[in-house]
Structures are given as C-alpha cells and as structure tokens.
Amino acid sequence: MKEEVGSVADVAVRGRDGEIHARLYRPRSIERPPLVVYYHGGGFVYYSVETHDNICRRLSTLSGAAVMSVDYRLAPEHKFPAAVHDAYDAVVWAGEAAEELGVDPNAIAVAGDSAGGNLAAAVSLMARDAGRGDLIRAQVLIYPVLNMIDMSPSRFEFGEGYMLEERMDRWFVAQYLADPRDATNPYASPLLAEDLRGLPPALVVTAEYDPLRDQGEIYAHRLRAAGVPATATRYLGMTHGFIRFYPRLRAGRDALAQIAGYLSAALRGSGPGAPRAAPSAGPGRAAVGGAPTGRDLPGRPRGPFGPIRPCRFTY
Fold first, then answer.
1. What number does CATH give the domain 7-314?
2. Catalytic residues
3. pLDDT tens per residue, range 93-130
4. What residue spans define the domains of the chain?
C-alpha cells in the first residue's frame, strides 16, 4: 500500500557520465520546501528507487521536505567511483535546478541507508573538498557502511546470523571496488578520511545487532571530535535494514519519525548548529524523540525483533 504524499514525479538528473534517473516526492501544501537527496541501500549492487518508494514517501510527509531518491549506477557493471559520482552530481544538480524543482536551494540535506549512507557521507566529504560545503545543510546516515576494511568488534560479533553477514559484506565490497586498494579511499571509506572538519551536521542511526554498528558510531564520535555537531542513536534489539520493515515494526516507524524530525529541524533551523539533539524530555526519554533509552532498561532486549517494546539510546 502506497504512503500518501503530495505529488510524485520522475526527473532526469544531469550527471558527468550521462542522465541519472531520480524520483521527486513533494509534501502537500508546502511551497518551496527543503530538499532531502536520498540514496537507497543494497550493497551498491541492488535495490532502486522502487524498493525505497514508501520510505521516501513517509520521510517527505513526516519532515515536510521534498525528497529526491536517486537511481545511482550499480556494481558490478559500474565500479567505484561511479555511484559516488552519480550521488554527488545529483545533489549539485538539485542545487542548481532548485527553482525548476520548486525547492529551497539553501535547505538541502543528504540521507541514505546502508550503502546509501556511505554515499551520503562520501558526498558530504566531496562537497567540502570541492569548496561547496555550504551546499549541504545536514547528513543522515542510516546503519551506514563507512569502512571497507573494518575490523571493529561488532563486525565479528554479529557477522553471522544477523541479517547482514560478513561473507555477504565481503562479496558486496568485491563487486563494488575495481581495485582492492580503493578500500582506503575516503570516498569509499569515509571513516578513513584524515580530516572531518567542515562537514555538515550529522545524525547517525545504528542497530544493536548489526556488524556495521561500530563503524557508524565511531564516525559520529570522530565528527564530534572534529567540531561537527553529530548525534548517534542505537536502536536496541534491531538488525541491519530494520527501517525497511517499518509497516510492521515499531522501531522502524520510530526511527523514520526521528530522522524526519531531525531533518525538519536541520533544514528549517537558524544556522549550522540547528540540527543538534533536542533536550531530553525527562527520565526514561531519549535525547531525540520519545522512546525509552537503553540506560533505563533493567536488561537488554531478548534479541532481534524481540517481543519487548523497541527502544534506543542517543548520545
């Protein structure tokens, strides 16, 4: 069942290597809304604007922003950096075509899940390095892959039996990279960038039982150390990809609501410091949104998609 949204239109994005297909979702009754450029997940190998259609519809409705979902080129036919180039060209084009699109060119964010989170982070780095850092007001990274040579504890603790398995992850990387040495390129592995100063404020969403969890949270810590406002939220009891199950999974709905609220504040706030975490609502509440925090639980969730109420903690 399709989520209701103001309007949906396919658009042709001008890229350096040719036309890029994208889909634009607009909220109801909002003139010149902010714009979120969204990159779908799928290990750089599969999925499309179709698989993430309802997610983008819901984000547009909840945030009051237009959402442009990008059909970037996929591996193995198109190796790194093709996807990054498409992702970057799409956000640059959106800024230049803002009047045609009917969006605010001064209120653009990037967001993505899994491989798409990688692209959102890489695009933010690329824009800063090109002297266009002001183009992107915020970045939302949803259980992102940020280090192609990751050796963090969560990679091994949850590398088997938790949705995204280590062997799958290795296969995705092999399809994506033409040369194994590209794994250390910051546009492939943003966590390995030496300097994170000057990047847009970030929300990083992770899942407790995800092999990618640690690299996402480390990235948020590194951003803060570099002076970039960054919030990390871990959803307890969840596995990689949980947001896609939002129609039946409360944690997925909670996460989308949190992301939409963050984007709304980031794109409508005053100045680059706007998208910081909101003050806590009191004992038992998360810093962003309203789910109970992990620190207030008497014990850990029983397991992925367990029977207890989904919860999170934000730091």
1. 3.40.50.1820
2. 114, 210, 240
3. 999 999 999 999 999 999 999 999 999 999 999 999 99
4. 7-314
